[in-house]
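To whoever picks this up:

The parser on our side crashed when reading a file containing two proteins. I've narrowed it down to the boundary between the first structure block and the second sequence. Both blocks are reproduced below exactly, byte for byte. First block:
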Amino acid sequence: MATESQAAIRFGIIGAADIARKLSRAITLAPNAVLSAVASRSLEKATNFAKANNFPPDAKVYGSYEALLDDKDIDAVYLPLPTSMHVKWAVSVAQKKKHLLMEKPMALNVAEFDVILNACEENGVQLMDGTMWVHNPRTAQMKEFVSDPQRFGQLRTMHSCFSFAGDAEFLKNDIRVKPDLDGLGALGDAGWYGIRSILWANDYELPKTVIAMHGPVLNEAGVILSCGASLHWDDGRVATFSCSFLANMTMDITATGTNGSLQLHDFIIPFREEEASYFTNTRCFFNDLVTGWVPLPSEHVVTTDIPQEACMVREFSRLVANIKNGSKPEQKWPIISRKTQLIIDAVKTSIERGFEPIEIKW
């Protein structure tokens, strides 16, 4: 738990979205954070949310977003509002000198993201997106493997896939299929994860070009329900991702190097929150009769004391505490967010231009 000399970071949540339930629990489980307030456009909705999600008895409940932002006791805000509302409220959070943990996608495009980033930089507040899997202890172990020149070698190809089959209600009414709420659709929601995984495996080096795959599916309002793209680097590295609201639940990564391979099937949300596994192989080949592999791939199981979303909150709160003690905001996370947003923009542009290659410029 947080010590007296390093008090727990006091979180306020703006918006009572479904994902906020998960983050409320994560804030409760993080040892250096505490739920201090929630705001909704309805006081009744905010009150019910606080009761349903085990807020402490002394937590404050507000019937407007502005009222929470005016609360001087709040250190940080978690913002799970629809993407179209991010610029307005993220800038407001920053201007009130509150640190910002925000759901992905960060914005509808990189120009909007830069408005948010500038506001955070001008006000000296920490910015981080809510990509939880990168904070899982498994991710750090996998990074050791793909960075090992002997076991993995140089990355050559990678594929990432995230899909889930939205039901009729989802495809009609969810905010992620509404152009005025989350206009990036599956690309912004599911594609964000695939793009992030590709950047992660490539040490966050941006590709030279991005080309959308043929055959994206859009709804009647023009929102992407399914799409994919390939990313290309000058040295021949190639990565692909696919994302969809129209196919069975899949969360796969396959990264192939000159000496080894990495595979996992639950990279965004582990099958079990208390442990997560991944598979590696190094210098595998056929056996003599070509009836099997030699050597066999290895499964690695990583346990965690708290869920990955609580690990994210713990890291964010650590950075906020450092800032309160005189440190500068950590630039790593906003830079990674911006790179992810750049690729999102490029895929969307490539689709709109008839699948033209789009050059990536920082």
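<<boundary where parser fails>>
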Amino acid sequence: MGTLPERKDIPPWVKAPEDLKDPEVLQIQTQLLEAMFGPAGSRIPYIEQVSKVMLELKVLESSELTEIVVYGSYLYKLRAKWMLQSMAEWHRQRQERGMLKLEDAMKALELGPWMK
């Protein structure tokens, strides 16, 4: 991915053009975006500022995945990628535990198969 990002508002902590080369890329489930970044991505500016990186999100066509592209200096983008992967895994596990609790509650109520 040697292309420069389309974004025009490059944060001051990201040095162009050197920090815009060789970004780190990860893919997460699209359904986790709101839990990680808040409604309409409201937490993205804060995460960028604290992590000293720039993030771009790209929803992949015909997929339930979103690609997160992380720009910044080498150590900052690696640290941010690790943090985002950890956040995604935590939210995925939390969601899974919630579904298991829901299934257990439905079993406890002994709902018939037509109710599931």
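After patching the parser it read the second block fine. The beta strands are 24-29, 54-59, 65-71. The CA atoms of residues 106 and 114 lie 12 Å apart.
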